[in-house]
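Bug report

Summary: structure tokens for Small ribosomal subunit protein bS6 differ between web form and batch submission.
Environment: batch mode, default settings.
Steps: 1) Submit the sequence below via batch. 2) Compare with the web form result.

Sequence submitted:
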Amino acid sequence: MVNSESLTGEKTVYEIGYLILPSISEDKISDVVDAIRKVIAKEGGTEIDAEAPFKENLAYTMSKTIGASRYVLSDAYLGWIKFEVDKAKVVAIKAGVEKITEVLRFLLVKTQRETTFTFAQARAVLKEKEDESEPSTEEKEVVK
């Protein structure tokens, strides 16, 4: 068993991927992201990279209970932040993000420093593949 004192001073790179409730207005999304950033900064984390949240349909519905209300959601704002922090501080960051009620779900993972994937790149590749699979106007005329 490793105690948290032995982890102090060991900096590690983490990434937090998060889903923000779709009921939050677009002008308030940055406030929620800033709240996540404040939790990271409060624990001494240094941001390395990030991707602004965008609205996306979920692969399956998710629910979130806030107070006495239960919400079932089929879309959410999706984003991520990559940061470096002492290993001992990760538990506090996780607990801090859990307290942000506008966050539907999040995933905190250890990762590498270099950003090798972004959602913007993935969407561009997907669009390119869709464009290639659509027949051109000349091909449509031949089919007729």
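Above is the batch result. After comparison, the two runs are identical; trailing whitespace caused the diff. The first strand starts at residue 11 and ends at 20. The chain is about 35% helix and 40% strand.
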